[in-house]
Design a protein that fits this description.
This protein is mostly beta strands and 347 residues long. The chain contains one helix and 28 strands. The longest helix is centred in the first third of the chain and has 18 residues.
């Protein structure tokens, strides 16, 4: 290669590198409630110090310089918003070919009602604004924070506060959180472990895994994708699974309510309880309870049998339904399966 051609090649490579170099800066947001919005990229929330939320912002992509960072109060919250000046965004790390999100003029999206929005399409390739933002959010102890992410990945690690995470299409991983936590996900796998506090998860699709959750109430709502949980210690357990089934191991709870459309349910209970209700559209039900169980029992199945190793004093028996009592009948058990067998066994 001639010297002149080499110089041109080097200049071109330098120009491309300068266009895609990551740009990092920092913002500090202070308020009783802080909300952070970003359409595309990775979000990592970690423990912070002081009395303010500190956000490290890394813009990347060939069009990164076009992104705007805006702050200010909206709806009674102090906000930080990454504004994308395009209705078509290119994000090569996107696993799905396309995701569409309704975005308001101020860069907010997600929960809340407002008709003034534009539809933004996020694609893995093709024409559009090639830019994304990775955020590291440092949250001080006791802070109330709402985090909104469109597409990418979200991690919350060792945070102590009151948190809401709302994502459209992203994998979510939560570990070591203390405080009330709400997770609202459109699609993407959700993994939660070592959480102390009330937990509410609403997932459209992608499945959930939970391990070591302790609090007053645990609510799970999954449109599609299986749910598996272990070492759960709460007063109230609620699970609504559209498809994919539910498996819970080493559950301690007083009030248990499970509803599955398809896939069945398996529950391993470590302690006696006050109320257990299980309703499955299709798929069997297996409940393992302590030998000391004392309960009024009402079991019904559309097709499939009933198996138990508890001694039940029956008061009504029909082809598909059994009503009776175990011991003194202190608790209430109601299990109904549209199809599939029901098993009530000693753990």
């Amino acid at each position: 290669m001639s010297p002149s051609r080499l110089a041109i090649a080097v200049a071109f490579a330098t120009s491309v590198a300068s266009e895609s170099v990551a740009q990092t800066e920092q913002r500090t947001i202070k308020g009783s409630t802080v909300a952070v919005y970003n359409l595309v990229g990775r979000l990592r929330a970690i423990a912070g110090t002081g009395d303010a939320v500190v956000v490290d912002i890394t813009r990347a992509g060939t069009d990164a310089a076009k992104l705007k960072i805006e702050t200010g109060p909206i709806g009674g919250r102090e906000t930080l918003r990454i504004v994308y000046p395009s209705d078509r965004i290119v994000y090569p790390d996107l696993r799905r070919s396309r995701t569409s999100i309704h975005v308001r003029d101020d860069g907010t999206f997600g929960s809340g009602s407002d008709d003034r929005y534009d539809q933004v399409d996020i694609r893995s390739d093709g024409p559009g604004l090639e830019a994304h933002t990775d955020l590291v959010v440092r949250i001080p102890r006791g802070q109330k924070v709402e985090l909104f992410l469109g597409v990418g990945r979200a991690d919350i690690v060792n945070v102590e506060g009151e948190l809401l995470l709302d994502v459209a299409s992203a994998e979510v991983d939560v570990a070591g959180v203390k405080g009330n936590l709400v997770l609202d996900t459109g699609s993407g796998r959700v993994a939660v472990r070592d959480v102390t506090g009330d937990l509410n998860i609403d997932s459209g699709s992608g499945g959930m895994t939970l391990d070591k959750v302790k609090g007053s109430i645990l609510r799970l709502d999954s449109g599609s994708g299986g749910v598996q949980a272990s070492d759960i210690d709460v007063k109230e357990f609620r699970a609504d699974v559209g498809s994919g089934g539910l498996r819970v191991y080493r559950l301690t709870a007083s009030d248990i309510n499970v509803d599955t459309g398809s896939g069945g349910a398996t529950l391993e209970l470590l302690s006696v309880f006050e109320k257990l209700t299980v309703d499955t559209g299709s798929g069997g039900v297996t409940v393992r309870a302590p030998a000391a169980l004392s309960a009024e029992v009402d079991v019904e199945t559309g097709s499939g049998g009933f198996q138990t190793d508890f001694e039940i004093t029956t008061r009504r028996v029909s082809r598909n339904r059994i009503e009776g009592r175990i011991g003194a009948g202190k608790a209430q058990i109601r299990i109904e399966a549209g199809s599939g067998s029901i098993r009530l066994l000693k753990s």
